[in-house]
Amino acid sequence: MTQHNRAKSDAFTPDGFTPSGQIQFGIFFQGVNSGTIWKAEESGSQTDFESFRRIAQTAERGLFAAFFLGEGLRLREHLGRPHALDVVGRPDAQTMLAALASVTKNIGLVATQNTTYNDPADLAHRLASLDLISGGRAAWNIVTTDNAWTGANFRRGAYLDHADRYKHAEAFVETAKRIWDSWETPDGPARRVLHEGQHYTVDVTPRLPRSAQYRPVLFQAGDSPEGRDFAARQADVIFSAHPKFEAAVEFRKDLVARSVAAGRGANAVQIMPASEFILASTAKEAAAKKEWVRSLQIGPQQAVAYLEQFWGRELSEYDPDGPLPEIDPVVEETSETRGSGFHGAKARQLTDQWRAEAKDKGLSIRQFVTSKTARIDSTFTGSYSAVADQLADYARVGAVDGFNISPWLIPTGLDDIVNHLVPELQARGVYPTEYAGTTLRENLGLETPVRTADQTAETVRA
Ligand SMILES: Cc1cc2nc3c(=O)[nH]c(=O)nc-3n(C[C@H](O)[C@H](O)[C@H](O)COP(=O)(O)O)c2cc1C
User: Fold this and answer.
1) Model confidence at 430: pLDDT above 60
2) Closest residue to atom 12 of ligand 1, CA basis
3) From ligand 1's centre to the CA of 222, what distance in Å?
4) pTM here?
5) What's the average model confidence in pLDDT over 8-28?
6) Mean pLDDT score of the chain, rounded to an integer?
7) In sequence order, what are the beta bridge partners of 32?
8) What is the CA radius of gyration of the chain?
9) Could you give all domains of the chain from N- to C-terminal order, each with its CATH number?
């Protein structure tokens, strides 16, 4: 550990929290987005099962704990068209994970599913099915979705305010837990689950027994104070957005305080931040690789489309390799609901500022957009051994429990991590050398839930 990190970590390690001294990896397969290169010679297809199979099996060879799929139920739009940088090419997560269950043995299968547009009895059944099919490897990454436009898919308009989404999510998750909790033994009896609340009325006799890991592991992704408190009460793991060392330690401290306040232990919730790795044998080669990766992540049309969100007008006549458009934006404010990544800023002020910044740094449209969308905070760049040293610091301090890695190339993007980084981490004693068990819960070192004595539900014969 470097002196720098040691001084910081001693100051930040929260009371009652015990670092595991280990880190785990997850893989986050994103589909088409600004982080994955789909147009290089080496790129695979974003929808062929072969891409998913190959990368999941590579991850499993590297003893990864989990394979993640996100969820986007509706593409963002701007100027009446789907936004060119949005995540497309995403097959349904549960369908894909069920297929992957049959070609993998140990890796956890994590489906991102929102609580705003699903229903608890139905989703609990589908996740229980995945958990059974996979022999106890399923997980649910609970999200509420951060936008209003998805509602248009469901005849619900904007539906639910942000604050209400977490109340709704909590009732949803508690109902799902009761459904999974309802079987005492695999051959019955199951308890009938009755729930009457502001958000749901559920009367269901669960159709499936408990899985090998009792019930799906619960991940949560959502970073607001309400989201963090919700995770502290309900989740096993947080898929966080804070991978940089100091931010990660701060996030750990914050989460420990919240889980202790929620009556759970300081170690109750694990943390796996989103991350990207650009690695090579030497620092110099890794830096050159990073240049190459960045030059391909944002294509010319995507760069122009990105600016169109903030200008609110067509900019297709502008050269992606030329300066930022001199023309003014047509909107007053950038809009959250129709495809802007920037929420409610004054458009004129922002575009003036960007033009000045690009001019100052001598950046073309494409270079400027690349600099804005690059995962500056979540990228680890360097030699295998230097990055392994860095991650070992995280492990010793307990800043995180693992990293959820978005590969910039599919399906070969994990090869160098598995072939070179994993052995370096194992040599440092901070990464598993085998799977601890056959279920995700065992592999993450999570405790098995205790069946609740539910006073409100009737017991019926299954
Ligand atoms: C690392 C991370 C990954 C996420 N992935 C998804 C996703 O795949 N689908 C989705 O609808 N929302 C996703 N979200 C957003 C969640 O919908 C979350 O509910 C949203 O950010 C609003 O909650 P918040 O205000 O607490 O952050 C993600 C959030 C984070 C931090």
Assistant:
1) yes
2) 145
3) 5
4) 0.92
5) 82
6) 89
7) 88
8) 23
9) 3-283+376-460 (3.20.20.30), 284-373 (no CATH)
